[in-house]
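Per reviewer request, we include the raw input and output of the structure prediction for the construct analysed in the revised manuscript.
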Amino acid sequence: MFSKAVPLVLAAAFSVSACTTFQPVDTDEVNIPADYKYAADVEAAKPDPAWWTGFGEPSLNGLVSEAMDSNESIEASLQRVEQARGALQIARAPLLPSINGSVNASLRDGSGSGVSSFQPSESVSAGVSASYELDLFGRNRAQARSAESQLAATIFNQQALALTVQSDVAASYFTLLALRDRIEVAQANIDATERILELVETQYDAGAVSGFDLARQRSAVASARARLRPLVQSARQTEHALAVLLGETPEAFAAPQGDLTAITTPAIETGLPSDLLLRRPDLLAAEAQLAAAEANIDAARAAFFPTIDLGASLTAQDLTNSSDLVSQLTAGLLQPIFAAGRLEGGLQQVRAQYLELAANYRQTILNSLRDVEDSLVSLEAAERQEEDLRQAAEEAGRAFEIAEVRYQAGADDLISVLDAQQNLLTAQDSLVQARQQRLTASVSLYRALGGGW
């Protein structure tokens, strides 16, 4: 009977008409340039996955290492990967037969008050059964492919998050060092204004200067102190942010010291724009999500076709009697006939999801190209600006020294000294910020390129 039933089931399955074939979107519609517009012709070593070590700052290396071990967001992303692995295992399960065993025991009591009584009896039965869905139309295989792609996307998203944390740690550390240097500049300015104030007070007591000059210098001292306070606030808040990135509480964390001027900018090999498709984890994640959506379409199309289940069982009604065995083979077909538009709606939904992800993928490519170009422009501008500001700070320092000497000699008035001092403060502060911008631009470029790939 079973040999006749299976061909009938298969014949009924193949008699079902197929759905409209879905054509995947061509994601090559984005015109990727042959080269970057602002890429510099530099000789760079082979990229290192531990890209932050290229800055030559041991303290930074330790901070990034601690963040990778202790950052809670990274830990959460790793658990999402494990969830995706579990989902893949579940999705693959229908591709193999399901086998179950059973044991039943019963005891019949013969005692009673009736006219007739039965002898006590006991029985034990056992059986084993197997079932398998014949995946003729690929629904289970498509669901497994979707789960595989979702796992890949989750892994790439975890890598993208790790790159973000690494970049944030590096940028925060450079920002903190810059703020510390700016605090030193501001404190030096306070010391200079207080030194001039002492001189003005002496001259005022001697009647050499007016009360206006004294009030002006006292105002300069107060202004210099006021400029220090927001820098201290920003430094503390940046240190707090760095602590959280490292999985520590702000009050228990103390960032290491470092010399911003000693940190070098590594030569970064940009490669070709087309390389981004294989470098950036966010692009790889978007591509994997697109593959998962395409597999979901195949699964939704297969839902229009029949499902075919095969089964087999072997049962021993009495374990004491080996001849009391019952075997059974089954085959069944379930063909959707009317589902009130549920299958059509499901197919429409996953198709629209695919088209949405395809558009997002193309947009992500465009954004990644822009990120690289913007980072290249920022890095070049920061390097040139730093060199200009270095010269400006040197000249402003010499001008301030001359102004102080001339004021003490009575050759210049106080306004000349204050102007020279303000120019020096501005130049020194701007120079520190330019150093920071150079380093953070390098971090941004690494991030835009996908890290050390």
